[in-house]
Design goal:
- This protein is α+β, with helices and mostly antiparallel strands and 242 residues long.
- Helix content is 28%, strand content 31%.
- It contains five helices and 13 strands.
- Strands 1, 3, 4, 6, 9 and 13 form a six-stranded antiparallel beta sheet that branches. A five-stranded antiparallel beta sheet has the order 2-5-10-7-8, with no helix packed on it. The chain has a two-stranded antiparallel sheet with strand order 11-12.
- The radius of gyration is 26 Å and the shape is elongated.
- The two termini are 42 Å apart.
């Protein structure tokens, strides 16, 4: 994008007007730069990736007779306009194709790899910010505590089946046994029980356009010296297509 801007600015005077095409992308990039550091910044600059074909084509579109005030024959002008339209149509088609790849392909955090999505809630691979809406505390390296009475997961679903199997991985519980109850977005119970120490919470879930469920934790407590309400130590969540 910046190289394209430099080439446009260094080109003939007639090309400088093309800089207006780059303004939305530049403003997006500047906004993210000003607010840095920012978590999971890629989601905010997807338009920059989708505009790549435009950045490549923009500096090299030819000036034709009749542009920038030069006289030109009507036939050449019409030919130039037709070629210009074709170039922009190709650039837009390439941008649309890239958008589909970004949203549904392996570049998307919501894409399934080998039939599953691995949500890491701790360690260097922690990526839960894309999926977990609330209910997790700070990453403590080998685990992350649940925070409060509920763990809420909600994100877009691009799988091939209408059902998914969810596994919530727990490496420990606070003060012995901890009860849990899993419900979907409509409040329908999917699983209930209790864990005492390490274990897994496994349940099936209907998935049409989103994965959404809540793990209710009625026994979460605030321990002395803490302000956080804790229940279980999580290490990850795995979503598999059925």
């Amino acid at each position: 994008m910046l190289l394209s801007l430099v080439l446009v600015l260094c080109g003939p005077g007639g090309k400088k007007k093309r800089m207006t095409v780059l303004l939305p992308y530049l403003l997006c990039w500047l906004a993210v730069t000003v607010t840095a550091p920012i978590a999971y910044c890629y989601r905010y600059v997807e338009m920059v990736a989708m505009g790549l074909p435009v950045f490549i084509a923009l500096p090299f579109l030819r000036e034709e007779p009749g542009e920038a005030g030069e006289p030109g024959e009507p036939g050449k002008i019409r030919q130039a306009l037709a070629s210009r339209k074709a170039a922009w149509a190709a650039a837009l088609a390439a941008s649309a194709a890239m958008a589909v790849v970004l949203l549904c392909g392996s570049f998307s955090p919501y894409a399934f790899t080998d039939g599953k999505i691995a949500i890491h809630t701790c360690g260097a691979e922690d990526n839960h910010g894309y999926y977990v809406q609330s209910g997790l505390s700070d990453n403590e390296g080998s685990f992350t505590w649940t925070l409060g009475d509920e763990l809420v997961v909600d994100f877009p679903y691009y799988g091939k089946t209408e059902e998914a199997e969810v596994t919530v991985k727990v490496s420990g519980t606070l003060n012995g046994a901890q009860r849990y109850r899993v419900v979907d977005v409509n409040g329908k119970e999917l699983r209930s029980g209790e864990l005492n120490g390490a274990g897994e919470i496994v349940f099936g879930l209907e998935a049409e356009d989103r994965i959404a469920f809540t793990v209710e934790l009625p026994d979460a407590i605030v321990i002395p010296g803490e302000t956080r309400k804790l229940a279980m130590m999580t290490t990850g969540i795995e979503i598999r297509e059925k």
